[in-house]
């Protein structure tokens, strides 16, 4: 018997179908050993010896593997065909050797790029030894990540309060996000004008054109101002225009290559809204189910048999004409820096398995992969791009119109690659009417449009992965984990699929740029990736790489560790001065305190992180956040809103590390309240709202059943109701101050019912607000229930809405019986009509069955 070990149960289940009875397939559930998170796991003094530890949650599975190995004739290590897969196989082999569980036949390694019967059978027939250079590359990466993390992170903790960790690649990715944030804040919007006209062709069709020439001079982006643009608009409205030239050019668009790991992550983010980590989870499932090839790759080629299968499918389903299927197959080469192209691109394993309806995320991702792969072997799209120049009679004003027409769609019939930042004024896709030189065109409408230059867009997952790939930072398999780490450390936040640098992330980046500049340089990080790739190719020694890195890195960390925190803060204050205290060009010292007008502002660090404070502390207590929205905007200190009429204390509007808040009075512990997002407080006119927030929680009154108070307030997770240790959410801040007793009782009852239902809202069953007793005639239980349109009484047969304003819990049994009787009396005919219809419907099926039996 041969023991086959793979990573996951899903992969084991799929492979088991293809192997005979002489095989046993077990899963390791991923990595089985790792470096323990403590000092000394990598020992530079012992030539980077590594101490490995079996993961606690893998002990049981390793026992099963060990026992199976003792029964087996040979062990087949069939983990994934990449560096991580090779590392898992190496760890498994080392564990089996240490436990003396390796069978006489030893262990062999097999790899397959797709989990199909043909691929698995072929791999089993050609086992090999483990790839030592690939294992060395893994050891080097793991040691580097450990040494950077466990050497640099303690420096951060001690010298930079609030910082959590630094990483070899994560810190460089964070720098990209922070630098983009700086670019956005440094951007100064510049006004520009353009003139657009809707023109009428001789055949009556309309088309759009823009002003391109003024007074015989070609216009640049900033050549027009308000007056010139409106003068040109008036001139275009008055004058007729003649077509001077019509230029038509053929244009060809080629299909994109099949997916690599990074391009799949980018396109899934753009088209499907998936995060990189979610894309990889779905791709992993598709791979393990045998539907796609291995999903961690930077190769763009596909195997010859797959190439033939794609071309056969195109010829059969879309046609074999040259405008659909090119004469020769397409071959692609990657443009990514440091790409190794060791594996095929990501493609379907069986092209006859067409995409389904897309009911699940995995199906939607499969459809993306299938369409992209097939389109990559289709013909180029042929388009015709037309440019028309029109001038008025005196030649002073020239208009330009552009458009394009698809002649043969080629691959566009199946797939179009999404764009990261669609252009707002892209005219190329417009259709133009047929025009010829000398044609006269009149204007239908003309607009002078004011615009402003925009700052660069914040990174999305797609654009950040693309930029990392362009710079050669990280590997395709690491992008998802890098981005997730930045989120987990709260160095960035993601809003509307865009990365925003958080205060903590900006400070860490500034610290690393100032004291460890080399290690967050893009070229250095990319160069290290190249060296690691050389190790995996067997062209370099991983120990030499580690020795060279440590010889420079260790002294640098020791040097920074010796500096006092105050010296670190002073250096950061100087380094960040252009960002924290920008020169406004008004001659005023940007560091001058806006409150006391005597002290100077500087960067300080405290228990909760960095902030800006006045040098005249404690006489002047002016502070502002290190990085408030909009960068280093001035904060003029507390804004006085007015006096609390009950206490006589001043109420002020302030900003703190957790955002804006209102405060009543001064002293050691003044009353404070955060300002919710749906409340706007700006000045004295908003004193009423400030007092409402400061006086929370609001007492609604005693619960009619328990007598205990019901309160409304705002907590960490938003507005809520509270009663006797139980809670109910409110929709918004306004409900905190508007919810009355009836609504509060209903909401609390609904929340209690939902909690009893496992946290899910109870659908179809109304919440009982009170049980009144048995109906005097029918004996049925009469209850007061919370309904969609308000409280009502019911005996299980008849429902009657409570009168407006009636207290649900104050209704008596007699009142409820009277309401039910009135409701039943109001609709007797309705019941009478329904009964005969039901009986007739019940007899019909029986009659049909009797006829069938006789036949």
Automatic annotation (TrEMBL):
Q: Does the keyword Zinc-finger apply?
A: yes
Protein name (record):
DNA topoisomerase 1
Q: Where is the Toprim domain?
A: 1-116
SMART domains, per the entry: TOP1Ac, TOP1Bc, TOPRIM
- Function of the molecule: Releases the supercoiling and torsional tension of DNA, which is introduced during the DNA replication and transcription, by transiently cleaving and rejoining one strand of the DNA duplex. Introduces a single-strand break via transesterification at a target site in duplex DNA. The scissile phosphodiester is attacked by the catalytic tyrosine of the enzyme, resulting in the formation of a DNA-(5'-phosphotyrosyl)-enzyme intermediate and the expulsion of a 3'-OH DNA strand. The free DNA strand then undergoes passage around the unbroken strand, thus removing DNA supercoils.
Region annotation (Disordered) ranges: 337-358, 826-855
GO-annotated molecular function: DNA binding; DNA topoisomerase type I (single strand cut, ATP-independent) activity; zinc ion binding
Q: Which organism is it from?
A: Sandarakinorhabdus cyanobacteriorum
Similarity field: Belongs to the type IA topoisomerase family.
What biological process terms from GO does the record include? DNA topological change
Q: Mind telling me which InterPro entries this protein's record contains?
A: Topo_IA (IPR000380), Topo_IA_2 (IPR003601), Topo_IA_AS (IPR023406), Topo_IA_cen (IPR013497), Topo_IA_cen_sub1 (IPR013824), Topo_IA_cen_sub2 (IPR013825), Topo_IA_cen_sub3 (IPR013826), Topo_IA_core_domain (IPR023405)
Reactions listed under catalytic activity: ATP-independent breakage of single-stranded DNA, followed by passage and rejoining
The catalytic activity of this protein is classed by the Enzyme Commission as 5.6.2.1
Coding gene? topA
């Amino acid at each position: 018997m041969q023991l086959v070990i793979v990573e996951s149960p899903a992969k084991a289940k799929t492979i088991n179908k293809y192997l005979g009875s002489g095989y046993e397939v077990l899963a390791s559930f991923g990595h089985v050993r790792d470096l323990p998170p403590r000092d000394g796991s990598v020992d530079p003094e012992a030539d980077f010896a590594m101490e490995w530890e079996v993961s606690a949650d893998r002990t049981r599975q390793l026992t099963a593997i060990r026992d199976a190995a003792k029964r087996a004739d040979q062990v087949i290590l069939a983990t994934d065909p990449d560096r991580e897969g090779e590392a898992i196989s190496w760890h498994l082999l080392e564990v089996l050797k240490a436990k003396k569980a390796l069978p006489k036949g030893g262990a062999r390694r097999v790899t397959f790029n797709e989990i199909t019967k043909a691929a698995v059978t072929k791999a089993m027939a050609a086992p090999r030894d483990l790839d030592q250079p690939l294992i060395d590359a893994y050891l080097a990466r793991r040691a580097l990540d450990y040494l950077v993390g466990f050497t640099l992170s303690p420096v951060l903790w001690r010298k930079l309060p609030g910082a959590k960790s630094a990483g070899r690649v994560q810190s460089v990715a964070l720098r990209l996000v922070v630098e983009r944030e700086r670019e956005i804040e440094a951007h100064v919007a510049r006004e520009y004008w353009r003139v657009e006209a809707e023109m009428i062709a001789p055949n009556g069709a309309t088309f759009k054109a823009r002003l391109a020439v003024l007074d015989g001079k070609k216009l640049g982006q900033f050549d027009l101002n308000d007056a010139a643009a409106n003068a040109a608009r008036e001139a275009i409205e008055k004058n007729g225009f003649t077509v001077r030239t019509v230029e038509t050019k053929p244009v060809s668009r080629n299909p994109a290559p099949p997916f690599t790991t990074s391009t799949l992550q980018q396109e899934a983010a753009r088209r499907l809204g998936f995060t990189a980590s979610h894309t990889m989870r779905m791709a992993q499932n598709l791979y393990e189910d045998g539907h796609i090839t291995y999903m961690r790759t930077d190769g763009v080629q596909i195997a010859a048999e797959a190439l033939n299968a794609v071309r056969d499918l195109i010829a059969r389903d879309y046609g074999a004409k040259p405008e659909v299927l090119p004469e020769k197959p397409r071959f692609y080469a990657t443009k990514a820096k440091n790409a190794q192209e060791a594996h095929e691109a990501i493609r379907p394993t069986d092209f006859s398995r067409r995409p389904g309806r897309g009911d699940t995320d995995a199906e939607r991702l499969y459809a993306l992969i299938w369409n992209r792969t097939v389109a990559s072997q289709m013909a180029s799209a042929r388009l015709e791009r037309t440019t028309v120049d029109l001038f008025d009679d005196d030649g002073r004003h020239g208009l330009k119109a552009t458009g394009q027409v698809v002649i043969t769609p080629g691959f566009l019939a199946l797939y179009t690659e999404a764009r990261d930042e669609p252009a707002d004024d892209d005219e190329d896709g417009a259709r133009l009417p047929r025009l010829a030189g000398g044609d006269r065109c009149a204007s239908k409408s003309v607009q002078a449009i004011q615009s402003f230059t925009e700052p660069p867009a914040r990174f999305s997952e797609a654009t950040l992965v693309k930029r990392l790939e362009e710079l050669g930072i990280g590997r395709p398999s690491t992008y998802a984990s890098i981005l997730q780490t930045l989120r987990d450390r709260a160095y960035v936040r993601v809003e509307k699929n865009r990365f925003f640098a958080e205060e903590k992330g900006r400070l860490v980046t500034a610290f690393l740029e100032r004291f460890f500049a080399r290690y967050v340089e893009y070229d250095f990080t990319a160069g290290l990736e190249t060296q690691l790739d050389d190790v995996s190719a067997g062209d370099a020694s991983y120990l030499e790489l580690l020795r060279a890195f440590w010889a420079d890195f260790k002294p640098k960390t020791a040097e920074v560790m010796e500096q006092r925190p105050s010296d670190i803060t002073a250096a950061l204050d100087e380094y960040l001065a252009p960002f924290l205290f920008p020169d406004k060009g008004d001659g005023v010292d940007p560091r001058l305190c806006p409150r006391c007008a005597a002290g100077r502002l500087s960067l300080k660090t405290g228990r909760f992180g960095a902030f800006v404070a006045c040098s005249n502390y404690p006489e002047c207590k002016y502070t502002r956040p290190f990085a408030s929205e909009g960068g280093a905007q001035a904060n003029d200190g507390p804004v006085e809103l007015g006096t609390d009429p009950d206490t006589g204390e001043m109420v002020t509007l302030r900003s703190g590390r957790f955002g804006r808040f209102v405060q009543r009075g001064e002293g050691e512990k003044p009353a404070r309240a955060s300002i919710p997002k749906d409340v706007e407080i700006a000045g004295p006119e908003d004193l009423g709202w400030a007092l409402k927030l400061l006086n929370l929680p609001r007492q609604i009154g005693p619960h009619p059943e328990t007598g205990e108070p019901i309160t409304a307030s705002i907590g960490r997770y938003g507005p809520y109701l509270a009663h006797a240790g139980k809670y109910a959410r409110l929709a918004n801040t306004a409900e905190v101050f508007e919810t009355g007793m009836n609504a509060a009782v209903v909401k609390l009852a609904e929340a209690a019912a939902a909690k009893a239902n496992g946290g899910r809202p109870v659908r179809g069953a109304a919440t009982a607000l009170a049980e009144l007793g048995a109906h005097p005639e029918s004996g049925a239980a009469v209850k007061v229930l919370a309904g969609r349109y308000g409280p009502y009484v019911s005996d299980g047969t008849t429902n009657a809405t409570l009168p407006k304003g009636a207290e649900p819990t104050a209704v008596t049994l007699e009142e409820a019986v009277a309401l039910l009787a009135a409701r039943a009396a109001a609709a007797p005919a309705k019941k009478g009509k329904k009964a005969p219809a039901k009986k007739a419907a019940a007899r019909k099926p029986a009659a049909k069955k009797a006829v069938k039996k006789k036949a």
